Amino acid sequence: MKITTVDPIHCDAGWTAYTYVRVETDAGITGYGECTDWRMPNALAGGVRDMAPLLIGRDPVAVGKLTSDMKHRAHQAPSGLIQRSIAGIECALWDIKGKAYGVPVYELLGGKHRDSLRLYWSHCGTYRTRYFEMLNAPPLRSYADITALGREVVDKGYTALKTNIVVPGDPATTVRTLDGNMQPGVLDRIVRNIDAFREGVGNAADIALDINFHFKTQPARQIARALEDKGMMWLEFDSFTPSAVREVKDASSTPICSGESVNTLRDYLPFLQSHAMDIAMVDVPWAGVIEAVGISAVADSHEILVAPHNYYSHLSTFMTAHFCAALKNFKIMETDVDSVPWRDELVTEQPPISDGHLIVPDAPGWGTDLAMDAVERHQWKGNIPTY
Q1: Whole-model pTM?
Q2: Tens of pLDDT along 282-296?
Q3: Quick one: residue 367, left, alpha or beta (phi over 0 = left, psi -120 to 50 = alpha)?
Q4: Are 318 and 33 in contact (CB under 8 A)?
């Protein structure tokens, strides 16, 4: 069996693009991967195209060797976006290998530890601040609306949610910064946001807050301390400096989750060695399976649980599910519930979600394919978020 084509594919994701990789073979087996990055879709596609000539005519089953060769080609500029392009290709190769052997990908990773995966509703309220009409969802005009959203989470069977700093209004907004400063009143908005969600979910669901890269270390410490009595699942704080994350972790008893944008074991290692975070957020579409498995194994050796990053389309959810099934130190898996109305059309099988848990798929490969007719109907229009 030989690789015949390696193609990036863009699809409209409403306010940006999903980025996929399709790898075809002369045996008629096609593999699909996802490496979506909302702000850099063209760069991702370019990376896939640059790697394609290295793979044509080679055996797709040799996933480790092909991935190593791609990394060597990018050795003068490792990590970053090129790592994500490589990850998209690698994930498509795992899909081919599973299909060729007639087994689900988790079997290629040592077999599954569990049959179902606890999920949390991610970006809960975040997308509704800007796109509630597209999502056919209620607007968030008041904190009572946020409380109602919390009740919706529980009513739909989820036992955890993650939100950003949502400020209700007409229109609702989220707090973002370019300089890492925290303006007056933001801390109060954070507390009111979490309290409103807590009123809605009661004790039936955990709550996490994601502040991403929006704050420097000092305001992030303030936020962590302000949330100490809120029973948080975690505060998510991102930085590429391990000591900065450790400072925030040491500042309070609020659990800290981090690492979604750290996509190689080499870069992740100092975070794990210094116990910078309580929970490691590993990203399969950005790191690839091989790096994700390595990061998670080292995290396990440092007694750190893994909660994979997954805010993309359903293909990514299938990919991440196989990784989580084979993961010893799994905590919980991210999923976006709110999404563009046509997301379900883009794959041949839907994620089997029931009562806030994903049943691990058992079909060969990832267990779903891209529905190319739907992907072509929803061609990307070139929109990239400016925020």
Answers
A1: 0.98
A2: 999 999 999 999 999
A3: left
A4: no
